TrEMBL record:
Chief localisation class: cytoplasm
Lineage: Bacteria, Pseudomonadati, Pseudomonadota, Betaproteobacteria, Burkholderiales
Keyword Oxidoreductase (UniProt): yes
Record-linked InterPro entries: D-isomer_2_OHA_DH_cat_dom, D-isomer_DH_CS, D-isomer_DH_NAD-bd, FDH_NAD-dep, NAD(P)-bd_dom_sf
Gene Ontology molecular function terms on file: formate dehydrogenase (NAD+) activity
Name this protein carries in UniProt: Formate dehydrogenase
EC class (word): oxidoreductase
PANTHER family: FORMATE DEHYDROGENASE 1 (PTHR42938:SF9)
Subcellular location: Cytoplasm
Gene3D superfamilies listed in its UniProt record: NAD(P)-binding Rossmann-like Domain
Amino acid sequence: MAKVLCVLYPDPVTGYPPKYARDDVPKIEAYPNGQTVPSPQSPLGFKPGEMVGCVSGELGLRPYLEQHGHELVVTSDKDGADSMFDRHLVDADVVISQPFWPAYLTAERIARAKKLKLALTAGIGSDHVDLKAAAEHGITVAEETYSNSISVAEHVVMMVLSLVRNYLPAHQYAVNGGWNIADCVSRSYDLEGMHFGTIAAGRIGIAVLRRLKPFDVKLHYHNRHRLAPEVEAELGLTYHDSPQSMVKVCDVVNLQTPLYPATQGMIDEKMLSQFKRGAYLINTARGALCDRDAIVRALQSGQLAGYAGDVWAPQPAPVDHPWRTMPRQGMTPHMSGSSLSAQARYAAGTLEILECFFEGRPIRPEYLIVDGGNLAGTGAKSYGLS
Ligand code: NDP
């Protein structure tokens, strides 16, 4: 019997289950690169479209785990030495956590988790786990690649348009009873003809480029590895061998790299000074990719015309985090990858990985981040240990 410790975000303050706005979610048959969607052998413990990402939703895992004699502990109490997470970690075999409400598996915590064999991310982005420490302790780290990549790509497109067209302040004028056209449009532009660039063109980055192509923008990217010539030609992409070269010519910059030591703080004062004055920056990747205070200063000085994203450091962000109140921003709590549609996919993927783990079957390589003492699968392609 194994102990599975699952850390999820709290239930809605309005109660669980929520009153759903719709009766179903579309069924996605395959991902854009042909990768199959999660395919667990056991029945799902939920109906797609239901809220499973919060504590009472339990990712729908209880029926499967209890049927097989495993113990499931679910909590949102994750921070501080006396948290439920810390108390149960000491004898947990499996930890499941979500990037939206990350249970930070630091090297110190990993050292105390003597039985831990699997750290599973319900979603994408396993930077809340100290990957080096996990590798050293023989812990497998896995996530559900692609499960919410399109969810995030859609969110990025929404934020690009919101910032460039000045949607959020204009909406506020309407809510407040105003009709201030001049105020609404004094910072409102068309996206058409602008230069848009993404730093990292992985699953999300490419999906964003594809979605923006019909807007007749000029598309740029920087990635560690260059994309296939056919993809560059299809999307009319300009490749840059450094982020600096790209940000100099872009009106809108999207940040989409995973967070690991080499990318932490990559958008700092120096990098921001290379941006075109009045550029917009979107970040749905990770908050710690940016220097928090440099972003605030760039918005205050007008070097950035806008910043939007849903990722912060740490999470949840403290109430006095300056990104909550900085000017010209469209921040939300970390939500883009946890739509009800995305939850159905990453919960099914979590079940698939658990089945593989308990039945001794290999986990799909595309789900692996760390395995066998080193980066593996997608982890070996997209992350670094330094
Ligand atoms: P992928 O693994 O598909 O893509 C990551 C890309 O980053 C790869 O193309 C990789 O390039 C590139 N990359 C890595 N390091 C660098 C670097 N130093 N400079 C430039 N490019 C680099 O991941 P996804 O696109 O699915 O997700 C990306 C990130 O988005 C996740 O790691 C996560 O942090 C975040 N995310 C956020 C969500 C949210 O809810 N806000 C949900 C899902 C993900 P190469 O192939 O050349 O190594």
